[in-house]
Structure formats: C-alpha cells, structure tokens
Amino acid sequence: MLDHLRARLAAHLPHLPLTRPTGFVSLTLALPEPPVRLPQLSSGAQFHLTQTHAGELRSGYGVAAEWQASGTQRLQQLAAVARTWATDWQQVDPDHTGYPGFALLGFAAADSAELISLDATDHQLPNALLWIPQIALRKTATAAALIFTVALPTTPERALQQWLALLAPLVTALYPPRAPALQLRALRERGALSLTPTHLLPNYNDWCQLVRQALVQINAGVLSKVVLSRQLTITAGREFDLERLHGALADLFPSCQIINLRHTAAAPAAHLVAATPERLLHLRGRRVEVDAIAGTVARAKSAEQDAALSAALRASAKDLLEHRYVVDAVWAALLPLCSGLETSPLQVMQLNNAQHLWTPVVAEVNAGVDVFDLAERLHPTPATNGEPRATARAWLQAHEPFSRGWYTGAAGWIEPDVTTGGLNADLWVLLRCAHICGAAAELHAGSGIVTGSDPQAEWQETEAKLSAMLTALQFV
Ligand SMILES: C=C(O[C@@H]1C=C(C(=O)O)C=C[C@H]1O)C(=O)O
C-alpha cells in the first residue's frame, strides 16, 4: 500500500499548483482497501471523529497549518482565516471521491485564554483552534480516502518529504493485525480495572450548597437556569489505551460523536476524549441542524421500567422547563440568521447511561451566514450554561471551583464546499468527556438547575453522565 500511494503521489505532484504564493493544496486519493480500524499513531498531533450510526470516520494527522485564538473575537479571528479557503484552498480530487480537505475546529467553554491545568492531565490545548492536518483520512460506509494537504508555496520534493514522514507509520496502522482480545481476568488480577478517584470538585456537601445558592438566585428571578458542573479526577492501574477507548465508546454510544484529540507532540501527551450526544450545529449548504437537549433521567434495568422512566421524563414539569429554555434560546439564536425554522416534536434520546429530552431544530441559513456566525450565536446554549446567558456565565465563573477548559466547548470538522464556495461543518458540544494523560483522567459532568431542582437528584444525574466515560475507561 505504501508503494502504491508513494507512486500515486509521485505521479500527481508535478501537476499540483504548489508555486502559488499563499493558501493550500489538497490531493485526495481513494484508498483501494478501506481501513478496518481507526489508525492511531503513537506520537504527534492527531484527531479522530467517529459516529458509528452515521458510518462516518474522519481523522487528521500532523499539522499543515493551524491558527489559535482567544478572547471575545476568537471565532471571528478564525472565521477570517476560513473565509479565504474558497479561493485559497485548491482541491485536487483525481479519483472523484468528492472529499475535499477538512480542518478541525474546536474551542473551550469560555473565551478567556486562561486554562487551569492539573499536573496529571495538562490540557495542552489553546483556547480556540483551527487546524488543517497534513494527512486526513475519511471513511464512509462505501469509500475511504486519504487527503494530503500542504501549505503554499512549496516544492514537490518538500511536499513529498512531509507527507511520507507521516504516511509510512500511518499505512502500517491502517491495516493492523487483529488486536488480542482483552484479558479481563489478567487485568483484574493486576487490579487494573479499578479506577481510583483522586480529586473531586466540588465534593457532595459543597455541591448541595452550590445548588441551593443557585436556587436562591433562581427564586429571586436573577437566573432562570444554570448548569452547574463537577470535576472528577481518577487514576487507573495502568495507562489508558486510547485506541481501545475510542472503539469502546463507538460501540457503547453508536449515536454519539466520539472525539479523540491530541494536539501536541510533547510527552506525555494529553488526549481530550468525548462521547457526546449533542450537536451544536451541522451545516451543509444552506441547511443547518441543531440539537436542543436538556432534561435527563437514568436508564432502568427492564424495558418496562425504562419506558416508565421515559414517560415520567416527558411529563416532568421541571425537565420540560429546563428543556424549554434550550429550545427557546436555539430558536432566538437562529432567527436573525435563518428562515424556515422548524422544530421536530419532542423526543426522548436513549443512551446507554441516560435518557434525555431532545428537540431537533432545522432551518435554512440566510445568504452570507456561515458556521462561525451560527456558532457565535448558539454557543453556549442553556443546555450547558444557563439563562440569561451572561448572568449564568458570570455566576458559574464565580462559583464553579475549577476552569471548564474545553468541557462544554465544541469541536468538529469544517470544510470548503466545492460546489457552493461556502463552508460545511459539523460541531459537537464537548460533553461526556475526559482529559486523559497516561493513567490519569479528568472528567466533567453537569446538570441544569431550575425551579424545583433537588441537590441530591442533580448529583445523581451527574453520576449517570460521568458513568458514560467511566464505564468505558474500566475496560481499556
Ligand atoms: C451538562 C451536561 O449535559 C447537558 C445537560 C443536560 C441536562 O441538564 O439534563 C442534558 C444534556 C446536556 O445538554 C453534561 O453532560 O455534562
């Protein structure tokens, strides 16, 4: 395969417009054989985005270019870069795959540059990031391709040298021998399956106190809703296997977006991993889709009990209220930018660890509106922050005893649409996530506090949310 790809690169390189003074060139080559698994390289910058139900996988390796931003203008600064791509990013697709080069777009919950990092799980992520990988992989149910990108101007020799340095380890990882089955008994004997909590912020008593303080603000009419969150740090008996973790999450949460992001080459490298059910936005052409998700109950042991829990969730005044704030805020955010707004009837989204009230919202964006304009108005929704937005944000910054970092930020892909000249994108809210470094992991989960919230029940809800990642971590 390496020889085949090397020969194809050599054949195309002389014809690529590499001497243009600015911008990028991407060359997309179909893979004759789709990879069986998601290729993980042992070091260097890489990201993976998988949604099992959608049958789609995107990965990126190395950095052809990246831009970092922070502050109130962070998204507009990145927008200024991406808006040049229609003219500055040449897409060469000799196999007619229809897959252009794409970038990762991600940002932290808040726009300030400051991130608190624990020694064990240094986040190693900038506040907001736009990143074009040197080699990207895209796989759907029917096809797979590698997309080689280089910043201009360059020479065929330099481009080839950069790509080959990554391609050799990548091709080896594309078609690996079958991984040995997980030896549960051996792991258990080594005590490796036990996860030990090392840090809990806030603890249970402080949590209850904070919920009561939030309720005072809610009863006083200062806040309508605020999404309070927790941080849990754990260690395991061994280093986490990120490849297994990605596979386990993709199996356990097939409707969720699984994200695995390692931005740095520094060792030990930190990974941000998420299995999120919540789409901030999906934009293709002029059509935008947004998930309003809020209102949660656990799963039950039997189908009957489960159905009873779903029915109770649909009828719960408290959950319907916290859900309504999100639907209304999504609607208000989209209204000035879109036409034909439609909300689907209320649904219950059932995940392995929890069930949520869910209202999908779709609309047609007005001409000239792009993913950055939409993200700017939508994020953060009251699903992760609160209502009113600015008051909730200020209250959380004053009361949550840690910095959220990228938890409740967003991440996903963004790519030029070669037919419209616009940008397509798929961004997910970073929930059910962990920062992982070696044998340590830092997890976050939150729950929406509204009139009628009970501190203990809200704590239980965060436990159910944390269990998404904890369950998977126990087996990797
Ligand atoms: C804040 C989280 O989840 C959000 C809050 C929910 C709720 O309060 O019911 C449900 C889904 C998410 O929108 C989290 O998972 O940490």
Automatic annotation (TrEMBL):
Domain annotation Chorismate-utilising enzyme C-terminal: ranges: 205-465
Enzyme Commission (EC) number: 5.4.4.2
Keywords carried by this UniProt record: Isomerase
Span of the signal peptide: none
Top-level taxon: Bacteria
Record PANTHER family: ISOCHORISMATE SYNTHASE ENTC
Name this protein carries in UniProt: isochorismate synthase
